[in-house]
Amino acid sequence: MGRKALMNRMKIHNTLKLVSAIGISELAGIIGSVFTMPSVTSWYAEIAKPVINPPAWVFGPVWTTLFALMGVAAFLVWRKGLKRRDVKIALSIFIGQLIFNTLWSIIFFGLHSPGGALVEIVFLWFAIAATIIAFAKVSKPAAWILAPYILWVSFAAYLNYSIWILN
After folding, report:
1. Cα 62 to Cα 10, 56, 137, 139, 153, distances in angstroms
2. Buried b (16+ CB within 10 A) or exposed e, 103-119
3. Angle between helices 114-138 and 56-78 (to 10 degrees)
4. pLDDT in 10s for each residue of the chain, 167 residues
5. Which terminal residue of the chain, N or C, has fewer Cβ atoms less than 10 Å from its own Cβ?
6. Chain-centre distance of CA 105, in angstroms?
7. Neighbours of 12 (CB within 10 A)
8. pLDDT value at residue 86
9. d(C-alpha 144, C-alpha 123), whole Å
10. Quick one: which of 107, 122, 106 has its CA closest to 161?
C-alpha cells in the first residue's frame, strides 16, 4: 500500500473515531433528555428557582455543545491508541462520568429529587475532574476542551442546591 493510500485510510479511521466519540457523548445527552423533557413543562416549570436560573430553552443548546466537546476531547485521547494503558484508563473514567451525567437527569428530572441529584452532582463533578486529570496525561488539549463542561456543571450544582433549598 502506498503512502498516500495509507494516509487516506488513517484519515477515514480518525473521522470514524471522531464521529463515534461525539455520537456516544451525545447519546448520553439523548438518554438524559428522555427523563428531562417530560418534566420541563410540568414539574420543573412549577418549582421555585433562583433568580439567576437561565430560561429553560438555554439548557438544550448548552448541553448539546458540551456533549460535542466531550466527544472531541475523547477522540483526542482515543486517537493516541487503545493499546496504551493511560488511554484505556482515561477513556474508562470518561465513560464513568458520562454515566454519572445521565444519572443526574434521571434523579433530578425523572425522580423529581433535587436533594438526591445534589448528592449525585458532587460525584459527577469529581468524575469530570478525574477525567480532566486523566486526559491531561494523554492530551493537554483534550483536558482543556473539558474546562467549559466542569464550569457549567459547577454552575448547575449551584442551581441544583438553590432549587433544593427553595423547594
Report:
1. 32, 11, 27, 24, 11
2. bbbbbbbbeeebebbbe
3. 30
4. 677 765 666 677 889 999 999 999 999 999 999 999 999 999 999 999 999 999 999 999 999 999 999 999 999 999 999 999 999 999 999 999 999 999 999 999 999 999 999 999 999 999 999 999 999 999 999 999 999 999 999 999 999 999 999 99
5. N
6. 12
7. 10
8. 98
9. 20
10. 122
User: Cell 475532574 belongs to which residue?
Assistant: 129
C-alpha cell at 122: 458532587
Q: Which three cell numbers stand for residue 50?
A: 433562583
By the 8 A CB rule, do 120 and 74 touch?
no
Whole-number Å distance between alpha carbons of 107 and 81: 35
**Residue at 68: amino acid letter:** A
Position of cell 445527552? Answer: 29
